[in-house]
Write a structure and sequence with these properties.
Layout: H1 2-25, E1 34-35, H2 37-44, H3 48-61, E2 64-67, E3 71-74, H4 80-102, H5 107-123, H6 131-151, H7 155-162, H8 165-174, H9 182-197, H10 201-220
Helix pairs in contact: 1-3, 4-6, 4-7, 4-10, 5-6, 5-9, 9-10
Length: 221
């Protein structure tokens, strides 16, 4: 009986996670908005248990936060100063990851990286004006950077990048409308891929730095 209840509940929690994430991505839940579990349960016609599980998962993404005595709420948008500091941190970490990945390229790695570049290219027409297009942009962009981090074979640098994941989710979500710069990002990803394919690790590192500097400038302009 316990196994049966669990197998029924887990898919509901997964579904609630997807529903709430989609609401965040399409702007139906705004920065700082309270997320009352009882009200959500009535709105979405589910029990509170799967909602708690879904909100706990969203908390780990950085898109939702929980405060003692207040419960869950949508995370606040990053300030311009926080965005600048976040991008500065990435500029310390990611060029070195690209350099190390460039010294260790394999055909399999390059094939996977090329697939993310092609996926990102496909999102360009819709990334700024369609929630589903933005979600695809977000996941393709993230996959590109995570693949390079994994290929660096430096778990400490990779962990340093992962430690920024929650803040990067907030950055992507709350700075998206009309400001993703998807076309620029797609071109920059392809240039980094070309450098890695040419086994020019120094160029890949330089291009990665320029890519992050460009993203910072586009958001803060």
């Amino acid at each position: 009986m316990i196994t049966s209840r669990r197998s029924t509940r887990e898919p509901v929690a997964d579904r609630m996670y997807s529903v709430l994430l989609r609401q965040l991505l399409d702007g139906r839940r705004t920065a700082g908005e309270p997320l009352n579990i009882g009200a959500l349960a009535r709105e979405l016609e589910v029990s509170q248990t799967p909602l708690r599980e879904a909100l706990a998962r969203l908390e780990h993404t950085g898109l939702v936060r929980r405060e003692a005595l207040k419960g869950y709420q949508v995370a606040d948008a990053l300030s311009d100063r926080e965005v600048a500091k976040l991008m500065d941190a990435r500029m310390v970490i990611e060029p070195e990851l690209a350099l190390q990945a460039g010294l260790r390229t394999t055909p399999e790695f390059l094939d996977e990286l090329r697939a993310t570049v092609e996926d990102l290219d496909a999102t360009v027409p819709h990334a700024d004006d369609d929630p589903e297009g933005f979600r695809h942009y977000w996941t393709s962009d993230d996959a590109f950077h995570q693949l390079i981090a994994a290929q660096s074979d430096n778990p400490f640098l990779e962990h340093a990048l992962h430690s920024l994941d929650g803040q990067m989710q907030r950055f992507r979500l709350f700075t998206k409308r009309g400001r993703t710069g998807a076309g620029n990002a797609a071109r920059e990803h392809r240039l980094i891929l070309d450098a890695l394919q040419a086994r020019d690790a120094d160029l890949a590192a330089s291009l990665m730095r320029g890519h992050i500097e460009g993203a910072k400038a586009r958001v803060l302009k």
